[in-house]
Amino acid sequence: MEIKELIQELKRKKELSDLDEGFVEHRVIDYLKQNKLEEQFKDKKFIKTRRYDILFKDLRRLLREAYGMFRSDDFKEHPSTKSRIIYYKYIYKKIFEITGKPKKILDLGCGLNPLSYEYLDCKPFYYAADISNNELKIVNNYFKENKIKGETFTFNMVDSSYKDLPKVDVCFLFKVLEELELIKRDISEKVIKEIKADWIIASFSKVTLGGKPIKKMWRVWFEKIIKKLGLYYVIFDIGDEIFFVIKKD
Ligand SMILES: C[S@@+](CC[C@H](N)C(=O)[O-])C[C@H]1O[C@@H](n2cnc3c(N)ncnc32)[C@H](O)[C@@H]1O
Questions:
Q1: Strands 197-205 and 241-247
Q2: Residue 181 CB less than 6 A away from ligand 1
Q3: Which distant-in-sequence residues (6+ apart) come within 8 Å of 15 by Cβ?
Q4: What is the pLDDT of residues 209-223, one digit of tens each?
Q5: Centroid of ligand 1 to alpha carbon of 212 (angstroms)
Q6: DSSP-based three-state secondary structure for 174
Q7: Given this model, what pLDDT does residue 203 score?
Q8: What is the pLDDT of residue 212?
Q9: d(CA 230, CA 113)
Q10: Beta-carbon neighbour count of residue 54 at 10 Å?
Q11: How many degrees, rounded to 5, is the angle at CA 27 between CA 44 and CA 180?
């Protein structure tokens, strides 16, 4: 079987259809390696076996957990942005009181967050990156329609090289590290180390999509990483979200 065929099959589910192909390919290759299936996979008959069904289900589940779930094209309805819509102005005010107003922002795993540009209360150049082609398209249209100086690009935070990223004043990592950790445990430390920014703002949700409290103590876990790296940081909570403002350089 060809990896490309499997990628197309996996992406047939609506919520995975706009996911970056490179990201899916990496997950397939990782899975084949971890399960020592590289040789078996090449066999044309593999697709008819029970092991293939298991592989398919495992990969779909992984992709759905790390990426899929529920998405909306509407900024006010998208789960991440919806929960902070009434707080946006306050969130940015609080962040920039610490960091100063930025000239350049990089938003990684941006989703539809760049559509909150008007609440920034300054006019920085805005780099927006994600693995969702659909979301990047919406953000790009929004930038064009509102004559915002910015750029959208695909960036896979698990597998791409951080050397290619621009150097900025402030980098947003809003509600994205949890998703990366599902794919690669302990990747967050590397992410924080490799981003070229004066300040990094990482956030975590305190509730699940269904509104239930999240069991994993992101605050404790993430604070450990920041302390280990010896970085200065400030924490605050707004709504159902915890924000870490971290001084990088
Ligand atoms: C919970 S949403 C948060 C969106 C946005 N940061 C916000 O807070 O409004 C997580 C986002 O991370 C993106 N994402 C997940 N895995 C990623 C990866 N490996 N590389 C880049 N983006 C990723 C998803 O596509 C999604 O847009």
A1: antiparallel
A2: no
A3: 64, 68, 69, 70, 71
A4: 777 777 667 888 999
A5: 20
A6: strand
A7: 96
A8: 77
A9: 29
A10: 11
A11: 170
* pLDDT of amino acid 215: 67
* CB-CB contact of 177 with 152 (8 Å): no
CB-count exposure of residue 147 (10 Å: 0-12, 13-18, 19+): exposed
- Picking from 62, 60, 46, the residue whose alpha carbon sits closest to that of residue 14 is 60
| Residue-level pLDDT at 229 | 96
Reduce the DSSP state of residue 198 to 3 states and report it: strand
Q: Using the atom order of ligand 1, give the atom closest to the CA of residue 113.
A: 9
User: Tell me: the pLDDT tens digits for 145-158?
Assistant: 999 999 999 999 99
Residue whose structure tokens are 């090449």:
42
Q: What is the rounded CA–CA span in Å between residue 153 and residue 133?
A: 9
Report residues of the chain scoring pLDDT below 50: none
Q: Which domains does the chain have, with CATH numbers?
A: 3-66 (no CATH), 79-247 (3.40.50.150)
Q: Locate 183 and state its tokens.
A: 């794919």
pTM of the predicted model, to two decimals? 0.93
Test site for ligand 1: of 179, 188, 194, most ligand atoms within 8 A of the Cβ = 179
Which residue's CA is the nearest one to ligand 1's atom 8?
Answer: 174
Ligand 1 lined by 80 (C-beta under 6 Å): yes
> For ligand 1, is residue 84 a contact (CB within 6 Å)?
no
